[in-house]
């Protein structure tokens, strides 16, 4: 079993906050294929189309038959660890700060030898489960886990580096007026977050779930209106220095397209919340989070954004809303690059249609707020950069990857 | 007995200027600051919404503009302390001069009558000002003159900053306002120029359930009269004797506008 | 598989001469060009020739960039008709020798200078690692960034588990080499090492501890390859080249490295020389870590696979011992000057069999086996090579 981490003491005001160091960043283009899969929580390696050989490290030609048709695909994580070391000295600044570091050599059941991070509960030699995750620099790495889950295994420090666990962290959920925001707040408060700050816009307007939210343990409501720069800036002034995780649950949804709807004012509001709201959060909280990405057990860890899958392809019934989500998706890519130097992850949780007033006419399956809350927690606990919640989100993504143009036509029929 | 000569316009203006300079005429601000957290009218979400005041910094003596500070502001025509033109309501849609750019200037300055119903409003959040109430007021304070701006004092502006200002409940907002017979009386029998309130609108919070719905909006604007809402400082005005200044922005075809509303009132006694 | 192609021809009258070791320093501001120039100057002076007489040049260096061997010719004013660059790290000297020997034999060149040299400025080791290989970049360094220590720690751990080897067994190798180094005036490590001190050293990457690791430094090593006739005319002490082997990426399907390419080619090494392991007087292995030394004892036929530890326990590896090995202290005690580390053993072996030893001479040493090993591309060393040199009969 792993030793449970302890709740960090209050910060020593005389101690400097050291900026985050990152593990080695350079990767070949082939290796980035592994990163793309790991970003979605999947352990994938190149497999040779010609001879079926599993290739590792990532390469450009098969070492079994010289075929250049190598494709990343999910592979089984079963493996045997055959050697281990504990590295105690390194010239790399990131690892120097984290010594000692346990590394192993595993032999994958499918035949490749892999140098890997070793979870502390792995016994050598013995069976392990290989998983791929993103390191703090945003690149895929593999870690060997015990074949069976062990006690407190998420608290293993090497494992925790690959996640953004809410345990002992302080979370801001941006929209407590919505069922999704309330579900996320409740889930994260129950997952060990020490504080969950929940933003409430226009507090003079009562909302459903208000009293339940007020009664949640470790949850504190704060005034926050993502359409108001001053409001976001003020809240960042108050809690920006101790916000470790932001979960942006805000989403302004209205049906409507472009022609014959005269919905420009409504579209404007959708962009104010979905696009500029995200920008305001990033402007106000980004610098503080980026400076605290290496700040110990409760370092700043993640910016999670929940957005509809139609960020990838326009759903004409929700035409301008889809457009705002596409812009949001693009901004998240930008934010990911901007927060990476601080070791802060940007996670996108793409959802199918949420079961709410605005999607009354959308046929099922729809996504319940509790499903989204679970996906957010999983993304944080597993370090997943892109999650897809619900059958519709997974289906749309699969179709997008197959052919975006076909998807466009399908969504418009 | 010969009448003293009528003062000329020049005399009046000179006297006003002197009064302002000496303090015998004072100016009372009836306007809330425009700020992002100022509440706006709440409508069902499927309708178009009232955009609250927003301000984005363009530069502040920095790289975006080293020597100057300025902002871009956006808002609804009906945000903050604001003016409603007749075209705001369907009943006034076909009236001439119904938009803010066309309002005759002489309507923007005029005598103010202040009806103090603050005690009644404190006792009843749904207090309705009725024709009976107006007649009782006139019996005590004299008749409301034609062309006056009638300001409905409820002290509701003192609730600003708390949920009580809009006072939203599951069945909607609860705040005082005029009944339809009161509006009929003021507009048709007294010929007022406009009607001003301290609440978020000229109508009561539950005014949508009256007949006609939103009688202040319907009757005022249907007769080419004007509305002012989100006023403050009415408690500093006399029941009569103040002169109101309420000039909206000259927005082409605009339905209303945020504005600075103030009143001139008798100040300290002359010679002091 | 049956042997195809031509049988290997023996080397005809290839002479190896003029062993040059430029004394190492831990850190130096001087460049690889500087170190190579010093080695070549010493080499030509001691050979009694001018730089213009060098019509062949073989260079190995990690720190020559952005220059190449070509750029070096202009930099140093050389005009060779045969030029080689061997980027094989610890296998560089053996491979350079193989190439140069055939060039001389064929008449493509008459006097070839083989040189291995590297600079070592503060932080240059870290920079070298960061751009060493694509597989390392993608699949090794992101895992704790232990560099070669991390990779060899895994090999060592696995080897120890597989054969019941202990740290003491590796310690014997390191302690014997330090004893040898104390007789070699140019060794970087000058203090005696006891087995107790070896065992008590701080861990670097378990099971590798401080004295299992080489000390990166700057320096240069060089030798000449020419014909026996020319060497004789110049009055040089020479060794004859009897045989060589070379192999890359041997046993790619081994889950982890337990043997090097020597195991594929060892029979040919001895057959070509007409010798047996017993006939070797001096052994110079590549010793970036002691586990690799033990593997070489096995793979080069001095004992069976898995018996390396017992071999070490039952032999005295010092210059006066029953199995003189790494007689100038090896890299573990003399220091590792980058690519020059691949030259250290060959140059030392050459000195031992030509009576020019700077360290304590091995009595009656006439035949030396020199092996090389290099390039941890990902998880294992890919290049291996070996050569047998023989001095004149005494």
Automatic annotation (TrEMBL), chain A:
The ChsH2 rubredoxin-like zinc ribbon domain, residue ranges: 38-70
Chain intervals for the UniProt region annotation (Disordered): 1-26
Chain ranges of the ChsH2 C-terminal OB-fold domain: 73-131
Protein name: SDR family NAD(P)-dependent oxidoreductase
One of the Pfam families matching this protein, by short name: adh_short
Organism: Jiella mangrovi
InterPro entries: ChsH2_C, ChsH2_Znr, NA-bd_OB-fold, NAD(P)-bd_dom_sf, SDR_fam, Thioester_dehydratase-like
TrEMBL record, chain B:
SUPFAM superfamilies xref list: Putative cyclase
Highest taxon, organism lineage: Bacteria
InterPro entries: KFase/CYL (IPR007325), KFase_sf (IPR037175)
Annotated protein name in UniProt: Cyclase family protein
UniProt organism field: Jiella mangrovi
UniProtKB/TrEMBL annotation, chain C:
Alphabetical list of Gene3D superfamilies matching this protein: 3.40.47.10
Protein name: Thiolase family protein
SUPFAM superfamilies documented for this protein: Thiolase-like
Pfam family, one: Thiolase_C_1
Coiled-coil segments: none
Entries under InterPro entries matching the protein: Thiolase, Thiolase-like, Thiolase_C_2
Taxonomic superkingdom: Bacteria
PANTHER family: ACETYL-COA C-ACETYLTRANSFERASE, NON-SPECIFIC LIPID-TRANSFER PROTEIN-LIKE 2
Start and end residues of each Thiolase C-terminal domain: 268-376
């Amino acid at each position: 079993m792993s030793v449970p981490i302890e709740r960090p003491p209050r910060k020593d005001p005389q101690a400097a906050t050291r900026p985050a160091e990152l593990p080695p960043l350079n990767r070949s283009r082939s290796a980035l294929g592994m990163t793309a899969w790991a970003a979605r929580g999947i352990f994938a390696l190149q497999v040779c189309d010609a001879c079926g050989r599993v290739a590792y490290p990532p390469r450009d030609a098969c070492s079994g038959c010289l075929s250049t048709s190598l494709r990343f695909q999910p592979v089984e994580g079963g493996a045997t660890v055959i050697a281990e070391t504990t590295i105690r000295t390194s010239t790399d600044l990131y690892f120097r700060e984290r010594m000692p570091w346990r590394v192993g050599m595993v032999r994958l059941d499918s035949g490749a030898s892999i140098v890997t991070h070793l979870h502390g509960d792995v016994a050598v030699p013995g069976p392990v489960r290989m998983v791929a995750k993103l390191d703090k620099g945003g690149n895929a790495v593999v870690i060997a886990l015990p074949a069976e889950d062990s006690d407190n295994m998420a608290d293993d420090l090497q494992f925790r580096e690959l996640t953004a666990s809410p345990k002992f962290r302080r979370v801001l959920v941006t929209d407590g007026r919505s069922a999704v925001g309330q579900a996320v707040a409740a889930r994260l408060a129950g997952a060990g977050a020490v504080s969950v700050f929940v933003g409430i816009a226009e507090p003079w307007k009562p909302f459903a779930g208000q009293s339940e939210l007020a009664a949640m343990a470790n949850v504190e409501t704060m005034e926050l209106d993502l359409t108001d720069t001053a409001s976001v800036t003020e809240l960042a002034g108050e809690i920006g220095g101790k916000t470790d995780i932001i979960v942006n649950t805000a989403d302004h949804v209205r049906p409507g397209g472009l022609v014959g709807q005269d919905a420009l004012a409504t579209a404007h509001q959708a962009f104010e919340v979905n696009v500029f709201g995200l920008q305001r959060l990033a402007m106000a909280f980004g610098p503080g989070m980026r400076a605290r990405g290496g700040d110990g057990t409760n370092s700043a860890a993640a910016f999670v954004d929940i957005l509809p899958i139609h960020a990838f392809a326009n759903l004409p019934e929700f035409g301008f809303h889809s457009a705002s989500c596409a812009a949001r998706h693009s901004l998240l890519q930008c934010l990911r690059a901007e927060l990476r130097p601080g070791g802060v992850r940007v996670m996108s949780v793409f959802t199918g249609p949420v079961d709410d007033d605005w999607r009354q006419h959308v046929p099922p399956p729809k996504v319940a707020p509790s499903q989204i809350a679970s996906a957010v927690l999983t993304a944080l606990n597993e370090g997943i950069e892109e999650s897809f919640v619900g059958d519709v989100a997974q289906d749309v993504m699969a179709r997008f990857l197959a052919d975006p143009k076909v998807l466009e036509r399908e969504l418009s029929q | 007995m010969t009448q003293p000569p009528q003062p000329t316009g020049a005399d009046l203006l000179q006297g006003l200027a002197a009064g302002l300079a000496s303090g015998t005429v004072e100016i009372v601000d009836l306007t809330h600051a425009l700020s992002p957290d100022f509440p706006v009218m709440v409508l069902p979400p499927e309708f178009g919404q009232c955009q609250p005041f927003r301000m984005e910094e363009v530069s502040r003596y920095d790289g975006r503009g080293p020597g100057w500070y300025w902002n871009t502001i956006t808002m609804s025509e009906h945000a903050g302390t604001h003016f409603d033109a007749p075209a705001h309501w369907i009943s006034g849609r076909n009236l001439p001069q119904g938009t803010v750019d066309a309002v005759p200037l002489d309507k923007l300055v005029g005598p103010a009558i202040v009806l103090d119903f603050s005690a009644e409003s404190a006792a009843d959040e749904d207090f309705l000002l009725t024709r009976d109430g107006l007649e009782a007021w006139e019996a005590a304070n004299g008749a409301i003159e034609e062309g006056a701006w009638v300001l409905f004092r409820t002290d509701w502006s003192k609730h600003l900053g708390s949920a009580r200002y809009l006072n939203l409940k599951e069945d909607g907002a609860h705040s005082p306002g005029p009944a339809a017979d009161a509006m009929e009386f003021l507009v048709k029998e007294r010929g007022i120029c406009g009607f001003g309130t301290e609440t978020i609108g000229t109508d009561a919070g539950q005014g949508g359930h009256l007949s006609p719905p939103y009688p202040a909006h319907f009757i005022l604007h249907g007769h080419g009269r004007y509305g002012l809402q989100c006023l403050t400082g009415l408690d500093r005005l006399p029941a009569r004797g103040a002169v109101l200044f309420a000039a909206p922005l000259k927005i082409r075809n605009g339905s209303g506008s945020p504005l600075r509303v103030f009143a001139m009132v008798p100040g300290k006694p002359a010679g002091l | 598989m049956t042997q195809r192609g031509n049988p290997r021809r023996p080397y005809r009258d290839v002479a190896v001469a003029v062993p040059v070791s430029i004394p190492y320093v831990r850190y130096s501001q001087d460049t690889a060009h500087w170190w190579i120039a010093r080695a070549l100057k010493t080499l030509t002076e001691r050979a009694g020739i001018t730089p213009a007489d060098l019509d062949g040049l073989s260079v190995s260096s990690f720190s020559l960039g952005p220059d190449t061997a070509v750029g070096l010719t202009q930099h140093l004013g050389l005009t060779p008709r045969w030029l080689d660059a061997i980027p094989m790290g610890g296998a560089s000297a053996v491979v350079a020798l193989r190439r140069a020997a055939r060039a001389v034999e064929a008449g493509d060149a008459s006097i070839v200078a083989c040189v291995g040299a590297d600079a070592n400025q503060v932080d240059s080791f870290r920079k070298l690692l960061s751009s060493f290989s694509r597989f390392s970049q993608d699949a090794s360094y992101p895992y704790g960034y232990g560099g070669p220590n991390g990779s060899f720690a895994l090999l060592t751990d696995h080897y120890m588990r597989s054969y019941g080897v202990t740290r003491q067994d590796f310690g014997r190798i390191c302690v014997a080499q330090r004893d040898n180094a104390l007789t070699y005036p140019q060794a970087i490590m000058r203090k005696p090492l006891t087995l107790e001190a070896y065992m008590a050293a701080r861990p670097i990457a378990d099971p590798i501890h401080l004295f299992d690791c080489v000390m990166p430094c700057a320096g240069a090593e060089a030798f000449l390859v020419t014909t026996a006739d020319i060497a004789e005319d110049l009055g040089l002490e020479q060794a004859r080249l009897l045989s060589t082997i070379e192999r890359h990426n041997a046993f790619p399907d081994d889950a982890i490295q337990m043997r090097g390419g020597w195991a594929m080619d060892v029979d040919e090494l001895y057959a070509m020389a007409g010798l047996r392991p017993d006939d070797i007087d001096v052994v110079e292995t590549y010793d970036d870590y002691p586990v690799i030394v033990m593997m070489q004892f096995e793979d080069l036929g001095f004992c069976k696979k898995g018996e390396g530890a017992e071999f070490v326990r039952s032999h005295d590896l010092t210059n006066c011992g029953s199995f003189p090995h790494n007689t100038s202290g090896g890299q573990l005690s003399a220091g590792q000057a980058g690519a020059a580390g691949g030259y250290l053993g060959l140059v030392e072996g050459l000195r031992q069999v030509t009576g020019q030893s700077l360290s304590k001479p091995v009595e009656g040493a006439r035949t030396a086996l020199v092996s090389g090993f290099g390039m941890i591309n990902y998880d294992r060393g890919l290049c291996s090579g070996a050569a047998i040199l023989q001095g004149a009969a005494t």
